[in-house]
Design a protein that fits this description.
The chain has helices at residues 21-25, 50-75, 95-101, 121-124, 130-133, 151-158, 164-183, 197-209, 220-226, 228-241, 257-275, 286-295; strands at residues 82-89, 111-115, 142-146, 186-194, 249-253. It has 296 residues and is an alpha/beta fold. It has a five-stranded parallel sheet with strand order 2-3-1-4-5, with helices on both faces.
Length: 296
């Protein structure tokens, strides 16, 4: 019989390590994706309810702001790194809400936000990535794309705006483009906001029932909703073919707005912490400058 230890066991349970959200939400590379198999109301990791989620998101704010400050400061000494958040999802999935509630945690002067609409005539005269390259963040900045180059394999596929042979090439072009971004110091965080069919109806009805939100409603939204299966298939192809080591996709359940905001905030925090930017040292004699200033 084994001897009993003379040490008393502590009644405290060891706290389980916090899951890495990048691993939890990452779309598997190269695997077939069936969006019907993902619950849009799921809470895969993190706070269990709305109150806890709101508190947790608020608590991330100072940490995100501090990392952003360091990232920008590092760029003044030649550090070319920056971060690009790509937001994609069906209408009402929360792209604008994410910009408001998550990006609002950062200093706006260090953010570059671009909402991509239907291409202009000038943009149609160029390759589809041309307008994307013009909107990229500069070193030290955090860029946010509300829709992106993926519209050119989403609505372009559903609405048959380009021949299929050209459409098929675009996935490879996107992957090569995103690799060049990564090679140039851009951390690409691509988020698919996974919304359910039922929740979209509820959010569209909310816009119709509130006169203050009529400006956000377009009768064309109902026509687009009728194409839901085609859009789901288009997203499945984009997630399957364009989730790479350099620029993986993250699938965020978006029916719960509070969870969406926490999850994207946490994803950004994990990526910025991995970058671990540093304040650059001053290129001057601190003691001498301090003495001169005191004597002035």
């Amino acid at each position: 019989m084994a001897k009993k230890s003379g040490k008393k066991k502590s009644g405290k349970k060891r706290k389980a390590p916090e899951p890495v959200l990048r691993d939890v939400l990452r779309v598997p590379e190269g695997e077939r994706i069936d969006l019907a198999g993902y619950d849009a109301r799921a809470i895969p990791a993190g706070p269990a309810d709305k109150a806890a989620g709101l508190a947790a998101t608020a608590a991330l704010g100072p940490r995100l702001a501090a990392l952003q400050d360091r990232l920008y400061a590092a760029s003044t000494a030649g550090d070319r790194r920056r971060l690009l958040l790509v937001l994609q999802g069906m209408d009402t999935s929360g792209k604008g809400g994410t910009v408001k509630h998550v990006i609002g945690l950062f200093n706006p002067s260090g953010c570059r936000i671009h909402a991509f609409k239907a291409p202009t005539q000038e943009e149609r005269n160029h390759p589809f990535l041309w307008r994307i390259m013009r909107a990229l963040p500069q070193p030290g900045e955090i860029g946010i794309f509300d829709r992106s180059h993926y519209e050119d394999v989403l609505i372009a596929r559903v609405r048959e705006l380009v021949p299929r042979r050209l459409l098929g090439r675009r996935y490879g072009q996107i992957n090569r483009f995103e690799k060049t971004l990564a090679d140039d110091g851009v951390t690409v965080v691509k988020v698919f906001l996974h919304l359910s069919y039922e929740e979209q109806r509820a959010r569209l009805l909310e816009r119709l029932d509130n006169p203050d939100k009529h400006w956000k409603f377009n009768p064309g939204d109902i026509e687009e909703r009728a194409l839901w299966p085609a859009y789901q298939h288009a997203y499945e192809l984009a997630l399957e073919r364009c989730s790479t080591d350099e620029a993986p996709w993250y699938l965020v359940p978006a029916d719960r707005k509070w969870y969406r905001n926490w999850a994207i905030s946490k994803l950004l925090l994990e990526h910025l912490e991995a970058l671990d930017p540093k304040y650059p040292p001053g290129g001057f004699d601190v003691k001498a400058c301090r003495a001169r200033l005191l004597a002035s």
